[in-house]
UniProtKB/TrEMBL annotation:
This is Methionyl-tRNA synthetase. The keyword Zinc-finger does not apply. Pfam families: tRNA_bind (PF01588). Keywords: Aminoacyl-tRNA synthetase, Ligase, RNA-binding, tRNA-binding. Residues 8-110 form the TRNA-binding domain. It comes from Photobacterium aphoticum. InterPro entries: NA-bd_OB-fold (IPR012340), tRNA-bd_dom (IPR002547), Tyrosine-tRNA_ligase_regulator (IPR051270). Gene3D superfamilies: Nucleic acid-binding proteins. One of its GO terms (molecular function) is aminoacyl-tRNA ligase activity.
Length: 110
């Protein structure tokens, strides 16, 4: 495992958020398009959580979001953040990271 300096870790802007909208991607079987309220704004991500969560399970879920990724296009949709998950090496399980207690949207993860 490569080591990084704290200064590199500090560049990651991770915040608490709430999933406020979930839709299946029209052109990809395993993708959702998700809107996440992070307090000061709403961010969109394209995420491959279809095999692990239903739309109903995701709605309203409190999550940890990596907010300062460069925007990317995934199957024609803009993804501007990343939901943090724990995933097994064989990808048989993927679990969203969530705050232990509900925190206001936008609280920084340190």
């Amino acid at each position: 495992m490569d080591k990084i300096a704290y200064a590199d870790f500090a560049k990651l802007e991770m915040r608490t958020g709430t999933i406020i909208e979930v839709a299946r991607h029209a052109n990809a079987d395993k993708l959702y398009i998700v809107q996440i309220d992070i307090g000061s704004q709403t961010l969109q991500t394209v995420t491959s959580l279809v095999p692990y969560y239903t739309e109903e399970e995701l709605m309203g879920k409190h999550v940890v979001v990596l907010c300062n990724l460069e925007k990317a296009k995934m199957r024609g949709e803009t993804s501007e953040c990343m939901l943090l998950c724990a995933e097994t090496d064989d990808e048989s399980r993927s679990v969203l990271l969530t705050p232990e207690q509900v925190m206001p949207n936008g609280v920084r993860i340190v």
